[in-house]
Amino acid sequence: MFIMNGIGSLFEFAGGIGMFLYGMNRMADGMQKSAGGKMKSLLGYLTRNRFLAILVGALITAIIQSSGATTVMVVGFVNAGLMTLVQAVGVIMGANIGTTITAWIVSLGQIGDAAKALQPSFYAPLLIGIGAFVSLFSKKDRSKTVGELFVGIGLLFEGLEFMSASIAPYTDAPIFSNAFKIVGSNPFLGILIGIVVTAILQSSSESVVILQTLAMNGVVTTNAAIFITLGQNIGSCVTALISSAGTTRTAKRAACMHLLFNVAGALLFGTAGFILFCIRPDIAVHNITGVEISIFHTFFNITCTAVMFPFAKLLVKLSGIIVPEKKTEQIEEISDKEELEISRHFDDRILGQPSVAVERAKNEVINMGRLAYDNIEIASRAVRENSQELVDRIYELEKEVDYYSKYLTSYLIKLNNQSLSDKQHLLVNDLFHAVIDIERISDHAENLADLTKYKIEHDIVFSQRGQDELRQLWDKVLCCFDRAVVARETGDEAAIRDVYRIEDEVDDLEEELRDKHIKRLSDGKCLPSNGVVFLDILSNLERMSDHAKNVAECVQEEISSN
User: What pTM was estimated for this model as a whole?
Assistant: First the structure.
């Protein structure tokens, strides 16, 4: 009977861990979706100073419930060249502070012991019920997200309750006291346990909460809790270190700084703790509570940040020594310099935070659009001036646009498989179509380069009237595409209306100019060879405005769906 009870308790503990981990995942996912594009705005503050970087790092980690995930995202941004190492230091420090939020959420259960109605576990079943109902029956995307958040929070506290209940009958067993006595007397063993458990769970927040659950049942000594918590902070670096494999040297340094920061803090507090416990053995063997673990965890991370903040640049230098520059280093097997630079903008590590990744993809589509705009503008000059130099430049830009198309398409496909809201799924789908249309516009610019090359080889020069007519149409096409890019970037309905209006004007003008030119050909005022090139240019310009309208129509669809 005793054996069966023991097995039953083990099953209950395992089920509790499963519910807790799944609840954490659902809660983090729900909070992330609720935050939406706000994380992009937070990241925008990183360009200001390290103080704000710390704040942003703490807020983002509080939202996604994982300092390791935040650091992985930082590695991705550094790898893409979107963040400097100095900025990264601030975010990493802030991430360690933000990760303490989870511990305090769990501590609410112990703080409310005086009144059952104050305990989160009391409301957990209700939260699960409400969340499930809203998620299943609500048609609104935001409501489903809130429902998902409620289910996550409820399962988290139910899991904790299961774990605590399964341990409670055995709290007086000698195995617990002996185990924590051994761990508490050996700082290295305690730190090692913390590292291993956190590395397995891939989250210091989750490993700290499991330790808190044991502490709530009065089986964890102060010295063991301190050393294990220090190890958990080091263990949170494992995810970022793994993710830095195959990245740029700078990205590797970002992951290294995270490790240096946490190891330095562990050494500082570990040494101080060991000395204190030698002087005051009574404190060492005191049974610590979950709330006290939260207090220490918070104090540790805030103190480490305060102490290490003035030495942020030193951390950058140390990371440079540990990850030195190699003269012959090849970052990726990409020979083309432009392709290599563009490929760095699409780091898969950012996909782990879909809200940020969606905004990142949108920004890169805008960059692609502006590059294509430059190509159109250069093509207009090339046609007028019969310039081979400008023709060569068009081919170069077209290659870069193709690189954008290649990496954006792959990135958007991966992003679409992430946990996205309906609104985000629609945006990703529209971005995919925008990439296709922008790439086609750049293809037409390349066609114009080919026509210019033909003009140069056959010494074709348009009359002043012909050039003026082309300039008139070209200006409208440039304006149409520019407003389409603005609409894609800002969602401005006025810009969308401008695109529709200008595209109609382009269609009418193209038809008018075509009729005029055919009449000139019929009257013998223009050579047939010149006329064919002129008409091909008109056709390419009209097709550009069609694709610009497609981009604007997708934005209009998003506005209508909201």
Answer: 0.62
